[in-house]
Design brief:
single chain, alpha+beta, two-stranded parallel ribbon
């Protein structure tokens, strides 16, 4: 009888514990787009931010209008530096993602500037910026009153843009390994840039070749259906990507990492160097904008590249 009671107690103890086993048919750990598969609402929120409508955060309409403030006429080709400045300004209106966009100046990433930008308090400009939250919503498994929501809002998601030049007329071979390592970083979003009418989006490499997506394919504008669904097939390249030799890369690029034994592409500092405060360094006036500094730094912004990081 004692044995039976002990057995029941053991079984009760066992069944009361959490049992973590192998599973199957669960969602993929790394997200992948599958044709015809219904995606999440967040996915469609991203697409809606880029569709060609005037009220979309990053539509061609918004980019063109904001570019006027950067000295670019509507219809004029944008170099990566202009695009960076335009995205930085448009992001301030993006209340859905609350992205912080930072452009590293003079080959230098200043950590103090990034902390100041990303740790600023979120402004509640309206219902879209600070939606009402039901009391039973959990944040990483914790109720709202546990203060988790406050901790989550202490840091804005960051897109870091670093303009660089890695040679005069062609890329210096000393930078190639560092460039490769940049694509290996999980935070890397890739590289954009190039000459007029031949700018590409570089996303990785194989051997000594870069893999890139070519935007020079004209497709019809996409409109949401009556049900609110947005056809998304045209937003995904469904054929093998393009390749080009790294040696053919324009020397104006940017990088987000350092590799031991390789030539560093930029400097990472805690605080802004004292010479940054001196406008005579780049022959600028004290009230010059970031765009002015970029224009002076590069011979021609139409041949510049950017490396993107999240």
């Amino acid at each position: 009888m004692v044995f039976v009671i002990e057995k029941e107690e053991i079984l009760l103890d066992v069944t009361s514990r959490l049992w973590f086993t192998y599973r199957k048919n669960f969602p993929a750990i790394d997200w992948r787009w599958i044709k015809g598969k219904r995606q999440t609402d967040n996915y469609f929120s991203v697409l809606n931010a880029f569709i060609d409508k005037k009220d979309s955060y990053y539509s061609i309409h918004q980019i063109a209008q904001m570019g006027v403030g950067e000295g670019k006429s509507i219809g004029q080709w944008y170099g990566p530096n202009t695009v960076a400045q335009v995205l930085k300004k448009l992001a301030t209106f993006d209340t859905w993602s609350s992205l912080a966009v930072h452009i590293a100046m003079d080959n230098t990433v200043v950590m103090e500037e990034i902390r100041r930008l990303c740790q600023s308090n979120f402004s509640c400009a309206g219902a879209a910026a600070c939606p009402a939250v039901e009391a039973d919503v959990l944040y990483n498994g914790y109720p709202e009153e546990a203060g988790v929501r406050d901790k989550l809002s202490l840091w804005k998601p960051l897109v870091l843009l670093i303009p660089l030049r890695l040679g005069l007329t062609e890329i210096n071979e000393a930078y190639i390994e560092t460039l490769k390592h940049c694509f290996m970083m999980p935070q890397s979003l890739g590289v954009i840039g190039g000459k007029p009418n031949s700018a590409h989006y570089f996303i990785g490499y194989v051997g000594e070749e870069l893999i890139y997506l070519d935007p020079h394919t004209t497709q019809p504008a996409v409109e949401p259906s009556d049900s609110g669904c947005l056809p998304d097939e045209s937003f995904h390249c469904q054929h093998p990507p393009c390749r080009m030799s790294i040696a053919e890369l324009d020397p104006s690029i940017a990088v987000l990492s350092l590799v031991r034994g390789a030539l560093p592409m930029f400097e990472l500092v805690e605080r802004q160097p004292s010479h940054f405060s001196n406008p005579d360094v780049l022959n600028l006036t004290p009230d010059s904008s970031d765009a002015d500094r970029l224009e002076r730094f590069f011979d021609s912004e139409d041949e510049d590249f950017e490396i993107l990081s999240l």
